[in-house]
Amino acid sequence: MKISCRHRFIALVSVCVLACSANIVPAADDPLPSWQDGKTRQAIMDFVRKVTEAESPDFVVEAKRIATFDNDGTLWAEQPMYFQACFVFDRIKALARQHPEWETKEPFASVLKGDLKAALAGGERGVLEMVMATHAGMTTGEFEQIVRDWIASAKHPVTRRPFAGMVYQPMLELLDYLRANGFKTFIFSGGGIEFMRPWTEKVYGIPPEQVFGSSVKTRFELRYDKPVLVRLPEINFIDDKAGKAVAIQQHIGRRPIAAFGNSDGDLQMLQWTAAGPGPGFCLLVHHTDAEREWAYDRQSDIGRLDQGLDEAKAKGWTVVDMKNDWKEIYPK
Amino acid sequence: MKISCRHRFIALVSVCVLACSANIVPAADDPLPSWQDGKTRQAIMDFVRKVTEAESPDFVVEAKRIATFDNDGTLWAEQPMYFQACFVFDRIKALARQHPEWETKEPFASVLKGDLKAALAGGERGVLEMVMATHAGMTTGEFEQIVRDWIASAKHPVTRRPFAGMVYQPMLELLDYLRANGFKTFIFSGGGIEFMRPWTEKVYGIPPEQVFGSSVKTRFELRYDKPVLVRLPEINFIDDKAGKAVAIQQHIGRRPIAAFGNSDGDLQMLQWTAAGPGPGFCLLVHHTDAEREWAYDRQSDIGRLDQGLDEAKAKGWTVVDMKNDWKEIYPK
């Protein structure tokens, strides 16, 4: 069918009118430039619109616009191992001189030989031993400085990028977009709370008081009349799975209206969010891009996404297909 | 000495000029109208000025203007017993019908007979039993509603005021004044976190995510596919004494630059605040007004202020003399 010039003109005007009435912003002001046009991006924008437009039946006052994000695999990468594990191995190497006994003691000996597979063969107990040897015994201030130094200098074993350069550009845009719409953004991560706080404000724009994670116990001490908090080799809280919902209530005391995760460890956070009295937006980042990032889900030891995929489908949650939904992965 | 009219005129002009140069606001805009002129009020205003004026050597960026407040005895009254104890006794009476065994079982039997002294004779173990019987076994949502209903209806045993009417007017002004100057205000209380959150936003302007207190453990459960958090009869955290410094690091991850308390339970919070790298303002509310409120300090079982008074003197912390520093106690 041949379309006349007049018809094309009318069509063009109609598109403009529709675009204006739907508040589609010009490309230059696009809040989510790294997100491909499509249903994922649209679902996010539709949700934000319906909770922020005063006349919307789903309008939510600003104080209640709470959004919670997992960190590993949701805001930054997590392969071939959680980045905090790289930190643990780097710290073991750095501390080896003070621990000559590690040369023959597992799992430390294997780490020092560079055999990470053997180092992890001892299972959970060995991992815990390595975590405690590197995360406890110093003050909170000392640990903060150790993390600051590490994040400023360490490089990812595969990409050779600084770890803070492996945050996801589309998620940075999403954080900004939500905050520009009155949301308060929080992190609830299985990772260490004090491993994240030294850099999350600069990298994600999320201040320490909005960052929650797993933690060791601390002890208040007066050292020559000066108070310090000493990090103890004892788990305080594991912020994973059901622990995320527990921690959200403990830390925020208000139910999120939006939650963002990528693994089964985030499932209860999403369930808790979805079950609120008002609108609840749930999103899972599905790692489908073996070329630009990694592709993994149901079978992965790290960031396994199995039950979550089924539940997302059953409940109509938004699933990001990283390969097709994201124009960029990392910041340029 | 006789002062000429001309001299008086010059003196008046001088005072005006001095007032303007010191940014003294006209009485109508006074941010602390219930605070008597004097050194306490001046110390507060001097501190706020020095951390907020851009050219001040002690200037602190807004994100780091963290102020933490104790609740009982600092923001609201705590005599003749912590208000949460009144809640416990009221709940025991309300629940008695479901617990016929309480008629003969201590400490419940004494509560039901109105003999609170006998009810407390069992010491810590009896208190814990009463707390758990009234604070656990329900979901977080159910407990929130119980607290909402109680705070809306219960009356103080002595003043017959609603409990939320026994907050301190000067402290409400102080909270507003700090927030108007870019501070983020937090509560760190030995009282129950979920006992405060249902009303702190309305009464103090402090949202739930900025309220921290003692807590019981909770368990995530799916009930017919609907997630709930069930409150368990098990202590999770006691937010008192050294626990306050531990909790501040855990919850905020940043050291306060101002802390406000009234008892030895707040001492470590103040020590932690005072020991920061920059300016740290510490204030204790000293209950000296037996007529309008209560007078107590070193010998009191509730809100004992003993070591704190000594340390405040030694370290030059600000001590509010309630009788002489406050024009009003409660809101009108």
Describe this entry's structure for a reader.
Two copies of one chain form a homodimer. Chain A has helices at residues 5-21, 39-52, 83-95, 108-113, 116-119, 123-135, 140-153, 169-180, 193-204, 242-251, 267-274, 307-315, 322-325; strands spanning 66-69, 184-192, 211-223, 226-237, 258-261, 281-288, 295-296, 318-321. The model of chain A is unreliable at 1-6 and 8-26 (pLDDT under 50). The longest helix of chain A is centred in the first third of the chain and has 17 residues, at 5-21. The first copy, chain A, has 332 residues and is an alpha/beta fold. In chain A, strands 1, 2, 3, 4, 5, 6, 7 and 8 form an eight-stranded mixed sheet that branches. In chain A, helix 3 crosses helix 6 (123-135) and helix 7 packs across helix 9. Chain A binds chain B through residues 63, 66, 140, 184, 193-194, 197, 201, 207-211, 215, 218-220, 222, 226-227, 229, 236, 242, 245-246, 249-254, 268, 271-272, 275, and chain B through 63, 66, 140, 184, 193-194, 197, 201, 207-211, 215, 218-220, 222, 226-227, 229, 236, 242, 245-246, 249-254, 268, 271-272, 275.
Short summary:
In chain A, 41% of the residues lie in helices and 17% in strands. The first copy, chain A, has 13 helices and eight strands.
